[in-house]
Amino acid sequence: MCLAIPGCIVELAADPLGQGKVRFGEVLRPVCLACVPEAQVGDYVIVHAGFAISVLDGAEAERTLALLDAARDAGAAGGEA
Amino acid sequence: MKYLAEFRDPERVRHSVAELARVTTQQWTVMEICGGQTHAIVRYGLDQLLPQGIELVHGPGCPVCVTPIEEIDQAIAVALLPGVTLCSFGDMLRVPGTDTDLLQARAQGADVRVVYSPLDAVELALAEPERDVVFFAVGFETTTPASAAAALRAKQLGIANFSLLSSHVRVPPAMSAILSSDECRVDGFLAAGHVCSVMGSAEYEPLCDRYQVPIVITGFEPLDILQGLLACVKQLEARAATGAAVHVENQYTRAVRESGNVHAQALVNEVFERAPRNWRGLGSIEQSGFELREGYAQLDARRRLQLEMPSLDPQGKAAASPCIAGRVLRGLEKPADCPCFARECTPETPLGAPMVSSEGACAAYFQHRGRSSQEAAR
């Protein structure tokens, strides 16, 4: 049940416990967005059992990738030395 | 798909593995808690890339796998009641009870249906008011908010024919149970990223302090897992070298905030309270379950249908079986160590829940390694 695939919000819900729509690749699914009230159309969310539990933070994703690359570059430099 | 390919990049994976080998000076055993992580590890063969000193063991992070046989029996009994429709996630239907499973109950005439979300079960109750719709609610802190939302929705709409058979469980008490066991061989944890995206990290800090194990909140892609493992091993090496204190660390910052999801926590706290819970393989653990609060008693299937809370029977059928699911769920053995693995026990004919569930460790080994892992174990 622990789907890790982020989905993109394409439609918000009409009421607080209602269901919006989230796109996973080619698949469009109804998703309850009650716990991500800050989310907007175009945001990526982590969805679990039809329920969005987290909005993906793009800046943090980039920071993680940058850390990985910095570690790789440091390793490469160390190897050359 | 956004932020998937980047976290599966083979070049970054190679460098992360090299870095892990560089920092590892001794033997460490790290447990990943979530079944989603187990599947990623086995699917991508990450455990086979690791330096010799590092062993990954698989924890009790599959809700289907840890639901005790007594609660499966209870769900089957509910499904067989006249006028009742029992709904749950697809994996639950094939988990063996003492004598049968929900799928066989359906073949005997029980109205058992698969739903994708607890909210779908509420919709079903609304559409079929003549049926008593019971949602067999399993899952960790990730799924509990969805069940809470379903309860609130049913209350908001005044639906009288919907209730929850709650088997929800909390992860930190299970980690504590593993760490306090005499058999424990876990040096550090990769904590379940999505559980933490709901609950935040605060619950893990007392575990770190009490047992002096590093806990790294980790995502689900290959690079997430390697990066989480690297952070965990660095803490272990520093502790060994200088006596440095260990701490909770967050690798999965793109989805997990320190405070978690406060809206989801509020939903859970409104509807549920903590209670003791039985776990398959781990036994009874204090404060490890979620029961509906008094204010939601009319939505509690156990009270509504006057069901007894099932008691754990350690001498029962599961204990008599040669299946080692309980030891797999505690990280003491691997699926291929089981004499039944890929012989009597396959996804088509599962003996234990870890072979049934798509998130189970045994299913992961069978699906991605097949009979080769059984042969390697001989």
Tell me the span between the first and last alpha carbons of chain A: 47 Å
Name the structural class of chain A: alpha+beta
Number of H- or I-type helical stretches of chain B: 19
Oligomer: heterodimer
Total number of strands of chain B: 11
Lateral strand order in the biggest sheet of chain A: 3-2-1-4-5
Task: Explain the layout of strands and helices.
The complex is a heterodimer of chains A (81) and B (378).
Chain A: E1 6-11, E2 19-24, E3 27-32, E4 44-48, E5 51-55, H1 58-80
Antiparallel strand pairs in A: 1-2, 1-4, 2-3, 4-5
Chain B: H1 10-23, E1 28-32, H2 35-43, H3 46-49, E2 54-58, H4 63-66, H5 69-79, E3 84-88, H6 102-107, E4 111-114, H7 118-127, E5 132-139, H8 144-157, E6 162-168, H9 171-180, E7 188-192, H10 193-199, H11 205-211, E8 215-218, H12 222-242, E9 248-250, H13 262-271, E10 272-279, E11 283-292, H14 301-304, H15 317-320, H16 325-329, H17 353-356, H18 361-368, H19 371-377
Parallel strand pairs in B: 1-2, 1-7, 3-4, 3-5, 5-6, 7-8, 8-9
Antiparallel strand pairs in B: 10-11
Helix pairs in contact in B: 1-12, 2-18, 7-8, 8-13
Q: Could you characterize what this model shows?
A:
The complex is a heterodimer of chains A (about 80) and B (about 375). In chain A, about 30% of the residues lie in helices and about 35% in strands. Chain A is built from one helix and five strands. A five-stranded antiparallel beta sheet of chain A has the order 3-2-1-4-5, with no helix packed on it. The longest helix of chain A is centred in the last third of the chain and has 23 residues, at about 60-80. Chain A starts with 5 loop residues before the first strand and ends with a helix. Chain B has about 375 residues and is of the alpha/beta class. Chain B is about 40% helix and about 15% strand. Chain B has 19 helices and eleven strands. Chain B has helices spanning about 10-25, 35-45, 45-50, 65, 70-80, 100-105, 120-125, 145-155, 170-180, 195-200, 205-210, 220-240, 260-270, 300-305, 315-320, 325-330, 355, 360-370, 370-375, and strands at about 30, 55-60, 85-90, 110-115, 130-140, 160-170, 190, 215-220, 250, 270-280, 285-290. In chain B, strands 2-1-7-8-9 form a five-stranded parallel beta sheet. In chain B, strand 3 (about 85-90), helix 6 and strand 4 (about 110-115) form a beta-alpha-beta unit. At the A-B interface, strand 4, strand 5 and helix 1 of A face helix 1, helix 2, helix 7, helix 8 and helix 10 of B.
